[in-house]
């Protein structure tokens, strides 16, 4: 359900669980939202939007969806109980194909959650990791294009593809081995093993909260170490260009600016968000606001950094196993100066962030780890456009994650409550 003028209205019907090769469709439902522009002194004008479709797989958890560059397909991976990657038509949620990672020979009985999905820049190949293996699958039909067995070590986060598509960067770790590898994709092999085909390797203990990220021009690879060091490597040979020490706290996910001159990150569990010079690792600015909760997210024009910070309320353990505080806040920070433009607080007793915000030119979306609620804010001023309860089954424990279509007209949201659905919601607000 969602809130309209302080009242709760029915939400979309719950998904019906189906087999792993079938989508489940919910009847489209017109949803009443809270319009962002108030009429003259009399409150907000009622507005409508639509639940386009929903999909359920035989899995207890789906990860963050990824949308193809042409906007025609949305991809989502599942957990160790299902180990599938699904490709769905964005228009109606119909299943295009399903890839069963557990059937691949490199698994040797090992099971794990599908990592975050990563697309090549041309949209032709979808890359991901699970357990002891990395895979590449054809985005058009789900056929296997690459299999890389790194046993006996385990992967750390998703792989990263260079802008030219010629290198796959990956981090993996065991009790004795801690390595970043630059896999040579120009060999055009379908099966890789170990590190023999790596252009280079770099020994380091990569934090699970800060897996490698490549710069826009492909010359630098950023990551955070478990020793609390934000690091940049030269992608040409894997040597260290610089390191920025943030003491004992874990470095959060690093996000390079669109022009490649700055890199942003949070210091997990602290009050600090940093902006560093990409050339030498020196500090541009630091923004402090209560307790950091999410990785920074850039606006499409690169001028604003959106961050999620936990509030000053009571601590609650969320379904992700982390502590979250009430009164969580989204802050829009000027990317150049580090000064706050606006902030929005949920003023909720049970919020906690489900993940980083998602931003379009017009709106900022974020989800609650504890309520299963998603908010839409006006990107220019931070006023609330609408909020919707993604936990359609009525569970208060949900973990929504989201992705926008290229035209920003549809937002795809994962709910990890009892319905375990991927939902497609329209983002346009139409006066009723």
What does this structure look like?
The chain has 432 residues and is mainly beta. The strands form 10 sheets. Strands 3, 4, 38, 39, 40 and 41 form a 6-stranded antiparallel sheet that branches. A 5-stranded mixed sheet has the order 9-10-11-12-17, with no helix packed on it. Strands 13, 14, 15, 16 and 18 form a 5-stranded antiparallel sheet that branches. It is globular. Mean pLDDT is 78; it is low at 1-13, 16-49 and 393-400. Residues 200-418 form the Pyrrolo-quinoline quinone repeat domain.
In short:
This protein has 432 residues and is an all-beta fold. Helices cover 0% and strands 46% of the residues.
